[in-house]
Amino acid sequence: MTAAGLPMRVPAPGLPARVRIHEVGARDGLQNEKSVVPTEVKAEFVRRLAAAGLTTIEATSFVHPKWVPQLADAEQLFPRLDGLGDVALPVLVPNERGLDRALALGARRIAVFGSATETFAARNLNRTVDESLAMFEPVVARAKAAGVHVRGYLSMCFGDPWEGAVPVAQVVRVAKALEDLGCDELSLGDTIGVATPGHVTALLTALNEAGVPTGTLGVHFHDTYGQALSNTLAALQHGVTTVDASAGGLGGCPYAKSATGNLATEDLVWMLDGLGVDTGVDLGALTATSVWMAEQLGRPSPSRTVRALSHKE
Ligand code: HMG
Ligand code: MG
User: Which Gene Ontology terms describe the biological processes this protein takes part in (predicted)?
Assistant: First the structure.
C-alpha cells in the first residue's frame, strides 16, 4: 500500500486498459433499505458519486411504487440531478407506464430487467419469462426510436434461490431474446451471489458461441459468498469492460431472498487501481462518500475497503 492510501500498482497481463463502472448504489443499494432515504440525501449521494469520478450512475426506478416504496420518489429525485454534465443517469423501467414516466423527465438511458428463471420473473415482474419479454418489446422499441440507450438486465444467471442451479443454455436463451429486442448492452446478474469464476467464464463463452459479443456484456455480481471480485477478474480476463458495483457495498434485491450486498465499488476500484486498470474514480473521494452515506443510514458500510481506509485508531 502507498502512503496515499492506494494499493501498489502492479499490472497483470491479459486485462483491459480501462473499465467502465456502472454504479448501482443509489438504485440497487437503496431499493433494499428498510428505511426510505429522503430524496435530498439520494440526490446528494448521486452528486458525490459523480464528483468521485463515476460516469454512469443508476439513479432510480420507474416501477410500481407499491412494489418498491424506497424508490417511489423517482419523479422528485430525477429532476434534482440536472447539472451533472456528461454523467449518464440510467433508470430502471419495467413496462410502457414506466417508460412514459422516464421519458417525461428526459431520461436518456433506461434499463429493462428480465429473469433467467420463471420463479423470479413471477416474483419480480408478476409475469412469466416470455410474458416479461413481451412487456419489454414495446419499451425497447419506443426507447430506441427516441434515441434512448437501453440496457437489458438478466437476473439469476448463476443460480436461483427457489429453483437452484440455472442451466447455462437457459440463460443464453433469454440473453439472446433481450439482445434481439434491441438492447444496446446486457448486464449478467448474479442476483444471489452464488457464482464462481469458472461458471462466469463458461457463461461468457456460451454467450459468445451463441453470437453475443463480449463488447455488449456487463457483469453484475452480488458478494453473498465473497466471490464477487474473483468473478469480476474472470470476466475481465474474458474481455468484459463494464462492471456493475455499488458504493459501500449497499444492496440486495427486495424480491430475491438471500440476495445480500452488491460488489462494493471501493473493493473493485482497489483491485483495479492495483492492476493499473483505469476507472477514472478517486478512491479517497468515493470512500468518503460511502462513509457519509453510512452515517445517513445509521450503520457501517459492509465494504472491506471502506472499513480499512476509514479505520481510525
Ligand atoms: P403488475 O401488478 O402486474 O402491474 O406489476 P399491472 O401491469 O397489472 O398494472 C397494475 C397497476 O399498476 C396499474 O394501475 C398500472 O398503471 C400500475 P391501475 O390501472 O390499476 O390504477 N403500474 C405502474 N405504476 C407506476 N409505474 C409503473 C407501473 N406499472 C404498472 N411502472 C410491475 C407489474 C412490473 C409493474 C411490477 O411487478 C413492478 O413494479 N415490479 C418492479 C420490481 C422491482 O423493481 N424489482 C427490483 C429491480 S430488479 C433487481 O434488483 C435485479 C437487478 O439488480 C439485477 C440482479 O441483481 O439480478 C437489476
Ligand atoms: Mg442487483
Answer: ketone body biosynthetic process; L-leucine catabolic process
Give the CB-side neighbour count of residue 136, counting CA atoms within 13 A.
Answer: 31
Cell numbers that stand for 209 in this block: 458461441
Annotated catalytic sites, by residue? 253
Tell me, using a 6 A CB cutoff, whether residue 61 lines ligand 1.
Answer: yes
Ligand 1 neighbourhood includes 124 CB (under 6 angstroms): yes
Nearest CA to ligand 1 atom 30: 64
- What is the bridge-based pairing of β-strands 60-61 and 91-92? parallel
pLDDT (average), residues 20-44: 95
Query: 67 CB under 6 A from ligand 1?
Result: yes
> How far, rounded to the nearest angstrom, does the alpha carbon of residue 10 sit from its chain's CA centroid?
27
Q: How much distance in Å is there from the Cα of 220 to the middle of ligand 2?
A: 7
Q: Which CATH architecture has domain 20-312?
A: Alpha-Beta Barrel (3.20)
Ligand 2 centroid to residue 197 C-alpha, Å: 18
Res. 261: pLDDT tops 90: no
Yes or no: say if 236 and 274 are a contact pair by the CB < 8 Å rule: no
Query: From the CB of 64, is ligand 1 less than 6 Å away?
Result: yes
Spatial neighbors of 158 by CB under 8 A, at least 6 apart, are: 166, 190, 194, 195, 199, 200, 203
Domain boundaries, the chain: 20-312
CA distance 112 to 122: 15
- Specify the pTM: 0.97
**DSSP, res 63:** S
Spacing, Cα 186 to ligand 2 middle (Å): 13
